[in-house]
Amino acid sequence: MTLRRLAIISVHASPLAPFGGKKTGGMNVYVRELAQELARRGIEVDIFTRRSSEDEPEVDERLGSGIRVVYLTAGGVRPLSPDELYPHLSEFTAKLIAFATMRSLRYDMVYSHYWLSGWVAQKLKEAWNVPFVQMFHTLGQMKRRLQTSDALLPDQRISTETQIVEWADRIIAATPAEHAQLLWLYRAKRCKIDIVPPGVNTARFTPLSQEEAKARLGFEACHVLLFVGRLEPLKAVDSVLKALAHIRDVAPRLLDSLCFVVVGGDLESDDAEMLRLRRLTDELNLREVVKFMGAREPHELPLFYAAASAVVMPSDYESFGMVALEAMASGRPVIASRVGGLAFVVRDSETGYTVPVRDSQALAEKIIVLLNDASQRQAMGLRASQLALEYAWSNIADRLLAIFNDVQGQRVSRRKH
Length: 417
Prior knowledge:
Low-confidence stretches: none
Strand content: 15-25%
Largest sheet: 8 strands, mixed
CATH superfamily of the largest domain: Glycogen Phosphorylase B
Radius of gyration: 21 Å
Oligomer: single chain
């Protein structure tokens, strides 16, 4: 069978949201980029997400021909956290089915993202008699074990994830580590899991002139150390601030020529993590070094990567780490925590460095090494950009389509028997 029309479910994460917002990150990018790659192959893609603002239309076609982002109202039109969305999933599902029914739409498959969307996908599977493929992006069991979850409903999430593992026709794991976690923590059937990493847009993220980028951003006089992502405790931006304080103690002249640029968060809000990081910046006397830039649109990110001497990802937990991949495609070395997908994506001493989680001194040491050695930065950046080509979205889409076709074929075979 040939996949002609795909429904992508992304309940809490719109692919059109600015990167680095409170609940926008790698998953939003994944959904957007994959949809565009599939549309280039003639597949019609509808992405269903929740409407959280009056500015969002019912249907948005800005992602290009063959792609619709469909905003469904569930729980009112207001921002809600993923936990607050759970009671409204039935309403979301009913609105989705109504949208398809009124337009006589028939989908060949559902591809769901995150546990909330997996719950919806199972209801669609029952209503439409179509298979669904699930990608979790993060796992509740891992967040609970690492004590990074601030969820209101951790038990509900984990029990739902356990059910989704049974319901789904296939599960996409981003890394071998996630594959092992699904087997170990959720008792998933090995035959159900395929390992396919997220991709990277190698046309958008490509090596550019560092000097030109720094000039355009106003950072001509300094080394740029860059963080890109949501601002939340598990991203551990505070460990970078502590590393900078350590650098001031051991290599003060280096700190004089360093800018730590933070892309993410809302500069105007009273978000607790943004306020905490600003307070810590003041307490450590780093106000002249740290530049909070707020969330940025996807088209702005390549300039920030190009300006960077190194990109830091000090997270407590990352199922994959798409920012690391974007940085590598941009020809920049990455210093990352040795956790989850980061340990898989960043090759230690080849494309950057991995360090123990929450080890600010080790992080500081690697920052010092890279900033003091231009040839090392250049060599690592070159290797990183070459490796990133393997993750081009065209390659990733090929692998996913092979899986989708296999799932469809198995379903047809079961019907015949």
